[in-house]
Specification:
Number of strands: 17
Shape: globular
Number of helices: 20
Strand order of the largest sheet: 3-2-1-6-5-4
Distance between the termini: 72 Å
Amino acid sequence: MAEPRDISAAIRKIQKEIQKLPNISDRLNFILDATLDLFGASTGSISIADQEEHVLTIVAAKGMEWEKKIAAKLPFMMGITGVAASSREIVYVPDVSKDASYIKLIESVKSELAIPLLTRDSTIGVLNLESDKVDFFKSEIIDQANLFASQLTIVILEERIAKEAVEKSKREEDPVEEILGYDPLILFLKNRIRQVGPSEATVMIIGEEGVGKKLVAKSLHFVSQRKNKPFVTLNCSGLGFEILETELFGSFSGKTYISGKLEQANLGTLYIESIGDLPFELQKRLLKVIIDKKIEVPGRDDISINVRIYTGSKRDLLEEIQNEQFSMDLYYRLAEVPLRVPALRERRGDIPLLAHHFLYLLNRQYGKDKILNKEALRSLSVMPWPGNVRQFQNSIQYAVLLNSEQILGSNSFSQSKIEVESGGSTFETPNLSMSHDILTPSENLSLKIATERLESVWIKEAFQRVSTQEEAARLLGISRGALQYKIKNNQFLAGYNT
């Protein structure tokens, strides 16, 4: 039998002590420490609900790394914390290693108890108690913790702690947290940004289309010493030699000199997207500017510049160096620190968070009140997302605008064709509903057949984006010969014309 705890005395002590602490962070940390001591928990957290965005923000935590704490904005229904918030019921996981839905933010946790902080009409937050022992929280402790949480809710409301905590969280938003997610790959990326950003190192950001390379560049800029100086961007994709030359280095229009992006970014940061598309001659000129720290302008004095350069690439430039399509010297000047942005399919655990975030923004933008059900989140979580976060956001927008139902389900995202009349042209989006069949095992569990089915989707998607086999092969990361072999021998591409 667990020793009974004096809940009322604990609450009175909390009320008395927090009056002496004007700082909201100190007050929250005191409440959490007192709570953990009362119930013998080794670690834990307090999350407060943002009633507008329908997410939970961790406002106090013990045992959690700082990066994870500020990154953890959990939608209702996600993880045991989100489930406790949405169901308004206590959730107890006696052994977190056996719960597939458990989101592990602290390595030492073996069992966890999530108690919603409730009013009659809403959930204001969640109290999480954690232990480094399996099945630590017995029924007596759970009952006492629930009673304590109900009284703690009154204190939090009376002292306006919940409102102040949410406002503080929004005031102190880290620019790196514009990159949403708590997947280990994303947390690693954010940590690298915080380490590299304050330096003067050049950074090459590598990742597929739509993963958010520009957002990473912005985050690097805003944690650097240049954050109050210009952040200038240039996308080399699809631009011809003369336009790129003018855009990058400037030019004369008659007798008027037009500054280029390098000069516009002076004392600040220049982000060059699709650097692999920069013609070789301009690569050599850019290298000279980097070395000399000045731009040569015919007919006028050289322009001294002090610019930090970030670049983005979806292609493996080391391979292009071997093919003499990219300057080795320039590459090593631009890639002092390489950063890879993971594809969305590599961090599927972040999909519910992204879905709720984009839904909140789009509801506000279009005056809607759409809701995602569990089937919608499952559907979104298994789609292949070759277009990554950009495609994902577009799909949420499509569902918000073109579905009459308030509750969005799995069928809300299954439209395979969006027709847009523009000069008589019709554009198609990939058939996202295919992913359910592709990723669901059939009676025949042959891995060869499963691989061929998945490869056929990726190959067809590549040809939706580009027009030649050479471009498609580059996009897929294989040789043109390998692509031709796959098209010829893949049974799911029989009769497919490229």
